[in-house]
Write a structure and sequence with these properties.
This protein is of the alpha+beta class. The strands form nine sheets. It has a four-stranded antiparallel sheet with strand order 5-32-31-30, with no helix packed on it. A hairpin with a 5-residue loop joins strand 24 and strand 25. Helix 3 runs antiparallel to helix 4. It catalyses: S-ubiquitinyl-[E2 ubiquitin-conjugating enzyme]-L-cysteine + [acceptor protein]-L-lysine = [E2 ubiquitin-conjugating enzyme]-L-cysteine + N(6)-ubiquitinyl-[acceptor protein]-L-lysine. Its EC number is 2.3.2.27. One of its GO terms (molecular function) is ubiquitin protein ligase activity.
Length: 1335
């Protein structure tokens, strides 16, 4: 054991950790790289915590980007709480350190960051925080490093002598410069290799253990930072000996020099070689496959650049001149570095140039370069002499690491390394695309311009140091007795020592196979070469240089030739396998394949012929969408998707995965007809179930593609929604939602939003519960976080889904999810800068009602029309839905209706109650929009919510709704031409009439809506109800039922007008001279259309059967005629001989009843048979309703005759003649179960009202006028009297409203109302016809 360096202060620890976390927070790319590394390194036992860790990471990213301080604080608290609820891992500790840093808690941030070093020291110092390790830990590890360096030297001592002899006395550390790795390995015994491997393992374990020891020490220092008087001593270091324990003397003064002397980077060193053999084409190593913790990990170019920029590397002495400073500045610029000048000066002071004649210890004092760009293959003149010293060894920055000669034409690559132009060009020409030293991929192989700054410095140095410059090998004199230790770089693993010979043989075979593939003109040889290369690929670990060789254009072209010429299925499969594997690793392969169109066409052709592997290559080629459509590969794609995964081949990308991804790309085509036809094929061929299976795919990108395809299927053919909802496993989709962002995340939300539009409410809620509860994370919270960053057009969909999830339980007084969702909907509805978002928000509110058709369309409007009394359309729609879903039977939907009603009440309550009706204001603004689509959606949403106010508990929001929307509903009712829109507005207005204030406000608009109400009162019970309520609220009904004369026609030349009837838009009148006239009933009222005279005597009766469009006329000429009235002009189709005068005619389907010349009433069958009934009475008038014949008699009696049974009942008994004068019943009407009779007012009552069920008197009209005719509307009773007057009575109140004067003293013999009950037409005894209309 030995003691670490001097005590560390809390301020020092905080300085280093705070600088590190600040850098991480400021550089998003570096942060994402580290988080990705931590995810990759999670242990299998920690995989269950990956979901909450990803959620916490996403929440942290949102907090970093949030501009609102409260949102940032809330997100940080949430992420912190989530992380603390799970066991500590390096991932969670790292996230906590960043969270605490953002929360201004530096000590907690430092403690959490140190915890990463405690939990996984190797990962922390090599990949997470190597700079922090150097600054904070490495200074304490010098005894450990010195000890292991001595053990390494002991093991290599014997090998050093042999190799030095073969290498002409060159340093063991630099033997790879001149001696191939295979030659060096041949000099090493098996025991030496095992000893080195054991040393490596021990070294790593000791570093890990001491990291943990120091973490405990640093944490103790931080936790006691408030106690300024307490000094905490550094802990003793742990040294694990390989042979026996020894006490180590450690001089603190030399720690900086010894660190450089040992050539260490991040506390790691390579006990064997710095570099293996690297030829122009091969770099054989198994380190990429066997995890060796001794070699620094390869990182991306961007990350490497950032790490490189942290330190400056140069060669100088204590008295460095201006030229060397210029070199530092130039190199710094090349690596995008901006180090402070103080650090540059410190680096220059630490780097000393060594002379040949100095002692071994001095020779070993070589600077450690933190920049990994420094050449590991050659030891340049770090001991270069000062200018003018007489020595001619150039500084290492002046020498090319490839040629080992001083630069003549230096070029600096993008990696920051400088090479001789001729040498690096040759390197690139040999097919390499990486930097020789850093092994980073080069984005461009075109060399830059000459580095003239460096060239001028070299020229200046040559002027001060005249004379020949020796070859680099001449600088290594006396190496055998004075070995030098190099800096650490990636090296081969000891495992490669054992397998090197086998590897060499295999590579030679591979070379020969490639040669045969590219050069042989014999197809069989080329085919064998393909199979041989495939076996090599399957059996060996493919390294970058081998990949580079196989990816060269000539090799790829050889593979393509096989595709064109071979018919061997095995060879073709192997070729596709290799091209796919190469293309997935090297974009240059894809570029080579896409250069020639015929190559791509051949690949597509083979795919269509059934070669499944070809689809993977097509996917890797990334063809444009238009190209994919032109390929016409949909059927082949669907065939592969339909296959089971078990049938698929093992390849870099599964054929099914590639097919799903390509199909998704095709469906994104702008050609809607193409997408529609493909979707119809998907649904009809049942491929959709296989696509549903892709929701559980291993690749997130496949799951997202499947989501996109299924959403398009739902939009095109909503009936497949039930299949998807029934088969889909949503948990993997929810996991994908957490791991994605942007458009992909919205795609998933949109899919869920569309999926829960099922026609069964109970099934909908089951799916919603799955979405809410599946997975280890909170879907609702994730949606809430996403809602805060989603695009404006996406917000309504996200808010709609979030609100539905929140309402799965009974509405609570407060819910942050609900409040945020409704606020978002209102905000989108009001934001006129985004019209698409406005429409989406309105349509979302409409769909929240919760009822849908089988195709997923909202039933809100049809259902409201049903409630308003227009049930026909709704019933037809539901009948079709049920027949489609359950052919041959109707589904019992009572349970579903119950669930739908409960959901509707909950949803309406939370929407209407939000902020005391704030949503009504937004809907009111939407109704003012010029967009017809937005107005329509807002109108349906407003109608629904206002209608529901009469159902949900009143929380004082009815007033707000009335103030915001009443005028809009009145306006729509007055101006709308569509009867459905007018009916919906009435449904909303009905909700206001139950409130006294609402009724008062509505009454003020009565004159504006009265006409419309009258027009709708027959088609809509709502209109009748509102008229009734409004009339009851008036002191006098006269204002509501004012009539004015429209037109008057004189037909006195035809005698009296004896009968009148209306049908649709025509009015028919019968006259005493036997004429029948046809008049217009609309537009130009009483415009004569036709006049026909086929009866020879007066036409006493006109009767219409509504179903058959037939007019029946009865006359005193003893005939009854049947007229066809379907055309513009009427014509007689049948004449019946009645054998008696017809005074009053009523008709049923197969019979007619009329009053003959004498007593009784005749029942006449159309086949000619007749029967006389009630022979004891003289009948004055008749009424026929539902097989019951009502007779008003001359003796003032009223009788009911059941035509089916012949039963006779008396409603009112007759009376004897007074003074020899009869008092007949002149008019009789049956309406809504009541019998209205008109007779002379003997007792001051001319009209009596009877119940048709029990014959009791239920009312009367106290008029003294002599009534001769009567007509009834839905609300009014019209009495035609002697003296040329018509009295208008309220049917409900039995009060007289108005008296109409005809202008003559004649009798009003007949009356009729048009279909809308808006126009009253009367006929008089002096031959006049008048039309009166409601004003």
């Amino acid at each position: 054991m030995t003691t670490a360096a001097t005590a560390t202060t809390s301020s020092g620890i905080l300085h280093h950790t705070t600088a590190f976390t600040s850098e991480i927070l400021s550089q998003s790319e570096l942060r994402h790289h580290i988080l990705s590394t931590l995810r990759r390194k999670l242990l299998p036992s920690d995989q269950l915590t990956l979901k909450p860790l990803n959620l916490a990471a996403e929440t942290l990213e949102n907090a970093i980007s949030a501009s609102n301080a409260s949102i940032q604080s809330s997100s940080l608290r949430l992420a912190q709480k989530l992380l603390l609820s799970y066991p500590r891992t390096p991932f969670s500790s790292f996230l906590l350190s960043l969270i605490y840093s953002l929360s201004n808690q530096p000590i907690k941030s430092s403690l959490s960051l140190l915890q990463v070093f405690y939990l996984d020291p190797s990962l922390a110092r090599s990949e997470i925080a190597p700079t922090l390790f150097e600054d904070l830990f490495l200074v304490h590890f010098l005894p450990v490093l010195q000890r292991f360096n001595e053990q390494r030297s002991t093991i290599l001592s014997s090998l050093s002598q042999n190799v030095n002899h073969d290498a002409d006395d060159y340093s063991i550390c630099d033997v790879s410069v001149v001696v191939p790795c295979s030659k060096l390995l041949s000099k090493m015994s098996g025991d030496q290799a095992l000893e080195l491997k054991e040393l490596e393992r021990n070294y790593e374990e000791v570093l890990d253990e001491n990291c943990r020891v120091l973490v405990k020490y640093f944490q103790e220092v931080l936790e006691n930072s408030d106690d300024g008087n307490r000094l905490i001593s550094p802990p003793a270091l742990v040294l694990k000996q390989t042979e026996k324990d020894e006490e180590l003397d450690y001089d603190q003064e030399d720690k900086n020099i010894k660190t450089k002397e040992l050539g260490l980077k991040n506390g790691r060193y390579n006990p064997i070689w710095a570099e293996g053999e690297r030829s122009g084409e091969f770099y054989s190593s198994s380190s990429s496959k066997s995890k060796s913790p001794f070699f620094p990990q390869r990182v991306s170019l961007k990350i490497l650049k950032k790490q490189n920029s942290r330190t400056l590397t140069t060669s100088s002495n204590l008295n460095s001149d201006s030229e060397l400073e210029s070199i530092s500045e130039d190199n710094s610029a090349n690596s995008c570095s901006s180090e402070p000048e103080a650090e540059m000066e410190e680096n220059n002071r630490e780097i000393a140039l060594l002379e040949t004649g100095k002692s071994l210890t001095q020779k070993q004092k070589q600077p450690v370069f933190a920049d990994s760009r420094r050449s590991p293959d050659y030891l340049m003149a770090d001991n270069g002499n000062p200018p003018g010293s007489g020595k001619h060894t150039p500084p290492k920055d002046f020498v090319c690491p490839i040629t080992t000669h001083i630069f003549d034409d230096p070029v600096t690559l993008e990696t920051g390394q400088t090479y001789e132009r001729r040498a690096i060009q040759e390197w690139l020409d040999r097919g390499n695309s990486t930097c020789p030293i850093t092994r980073q991929n080069l984005h461009s192989t075109q060399l830059p311009k000459t580095n003239y700054v460096l060239k001028r410095l070299i020229g200046s140095w040559q002027e001060k140091n005249p004379g020949p410059v020796p070859h680099q090998s001449e600088n290594h004199q006396d190496v055998e007795s004075k070995p030098m230790v190099k800096s650490i770089v990636p090296a081969t693993s000891p495992n490669s020592v054992i397998s090197q010979a086998t590897m060499d043989r295999t590579i030679n075979e591979l070379r020969q196979a490639i040669t045969n593939l590219c050069m042989s003109e014999i197809l069989k040889e080329s085919e064998r070469a393909v199979l041989q290369i495939e076996r090599f690929w399957q059996d060996m670990n493919i390294e970058s240089d081998i990949l580079t060789m196989l990816s060269k254009p000539p090799v790829i072209n050889g593979f393509v030739e096989i595709l064109f010429n071979s018919v061997d299925l095995q060879v073709l499969k192997a070729t596709f396998f290799l091209l796919c594997e190469l293309g997935s690793r090297d974009e240059a392969v894809i570029h080579t394949l896409t250069r020639v169109d015929s190559d791509v066409e051949r690949i597509v052709a083979l795919f269509k012929e059934g070669l499944e592997e070809a689809v993977v290559l097509i996917y890797l080629l990334q063809p444009p969408t238009t190209g994919l459509v032109a390929m016409d590969v949909v059927e082949s794609l669907l065939a592969i998707i339909k296959k089971r995964d078990d049938d698929m081949l093992k390849i870099c990308v599964k054929p099914k995965t590639a097919s799903v991804l390509l199909l998704r790309q095709i469906l994104q085509s702008n050609e809607e007809n193409v997408a529609s036809s493909i979707i119809s094929i998907i649904v009809s061929s049942k491929v959709i179930e296989s696509i549903v299976g892709s929701l559980e795919a291993e690749w997130a990108v496949e799951r997202i593609a499947a989501v996109g395809i299924l959403r398009r299927c739902i939009q095109e053919d909503g009936k497949c929604r039930n299949i998807i909802a029934d088969k889909a496993q949503l948990a993997p989709v929810l996991e994908t939602f957490m791991a994605t962002s942007g458009e992909e995340r919205f795609e998933i939300v949109y899919f869920f939003y569309e999926l829960v539009k099922l026609h069964r409410r109970t099934f909908n809620e089951q799916v919603l519960n799955i979405i809410r509860d599946e997975g280890a994370f909170s879907t609702m919270h994730s949606l809430l976080v996403y809602l805060q960053t989603a695009l404006q057009d996406q917000c309504p969909i996200v808010a709609g889904l979030l609100l539905q999830l929140d309402l799965l339980v009974e509405p609570r007084k407060m819910s942050i999810y609900r409040e945020e969702a409704i606020d978002t909907l209102i905000s989108c509805l009001r934001n006129s800068e985004f019209p698409a978002a406005q429409i989406a928000a309105a349509e979302t509110i409409v769909s929240l009602q919760g009822r849908f058709t089988g195709s997923g369309k909202p039933l809100t409007r049809p259902f409201l029309l049903k409630r308003a009394g227009l049930e026909k359309n709704y019933r037809n729609l539901m009948r079709m839905e049920q027949l489609h879903n359950n052919p041959g039977k109707f589904e019992d939907i009572s349970q579903e209706e119950k669930a739908a009603d409960a959901w509707e009440r909950k949803m309406a309550f939370v929407l209407a109650s939000h902020e005391f009706g704030l949503l009504f204001e937004a809907l009111s603004e939407g109704l003012k929009s010029r967009s017809a689509e937005l107005c329509s959606a807002c109108f349906v949403a407003a109608t629904w919510l206002v209608h529901m106010l009469s159902v949900i508990p009143d929380t004082g929001i009815r007033g707000a709704a009335r103030v915001c929307l009443l005028k809009h509903f009145i306006s729509i009712f007055k101006t709308a031409k569509d009867i459905e829109d007018r009916t919906l507005s009435l449904l909303a207005l009905k909700s206001f009439i139950h409130d006294p204030e609402g009724l008062h406000d509505l009454t003020s608009y009565m004159k504006d809506i009265l006409k419309g109400l009258r027009e709708l009162r027959k088609s809509s019970p709502l209109a009748f109800e509102i008229i009734k309520v409004l009339s009851e609220g008036q002191e006098s009904s006269a204002d509501m039922w004012n009539h004015k004369e429209l037109v008057q026609v004189d037909s006195s030349e035809n005698g009296e007008v004896l009968s009148m009837v209306s049908f649709k838009d025509k009015i028919f009148s019968g006259h005493s001279d036997g004429t029948i006239k046809v008049w217009t009933g609309r537009g130009s009222i009483l415009h004569l259309i036709q006049e026909i005279r086929e009866h020879s005597k007066p036409v006493t009766s006109l009767y219409i059967l509504q179903s058959g469009e037939r007019l029946y006329s009865g006359s005193l000429d003893k005939t009854a005629r049947v007229w066809s009235i379907g055309d513009e002009l009427i014509h007689c189709v049948q004449v019946h001989d009645m054998k008696d005068q017809v005074h009053n005619l009523v008709v049923a389907n197969s019979i007619s009843c009329f009053i003959p010349q004498g007593a009784g009433v005749k029942v006449h069958a159309w086949n000619g048979q007749s029967k006389l009934l009630n022979q004891n009475k003289y009948i004055k008038c008749l009424a026929l309703v539902h097989g019951r014949l009502y007779c008003g008699c001359h003796d003032n009696s009223i009788q009911e005759l059941d035509l089916a049974s012949g039963t006779l009942s008396t409603i009112q008994s007759g009376s004897r003649k007074l003074l020899g004068k009869a008092h007949p019943v002149h008019a009789l009407q049956v309406h809504n179960g009541l019998i209205y009779s008109a007779s002379p007012p003997l007792d001051g009552v001319a009209v009596k009202i009877w119940s048709a069920t029990n014959y009791s008197v239920v009312g009367s009209l106290p008029t003294t006028s002599e009534v001769r005719s009567m007509a009834l509307s839905s609300e009014l009773i019209y009495l035609g009297c002697r003296g040329g007057i018509v009295e208008v009575w309220d049917q409900k109140k039995h009060t007289r409203i108005e008296i109409l004067q005809t202008g003559t003293n004649s009798k009003v013999l007949c009356m009729t109302l048009d279909a809308n009950e808006e126009v009253l037409v009367i006929g008089t005894s002096d031959g006049r016809i008048q039309a009166w209309g409601l004003s």
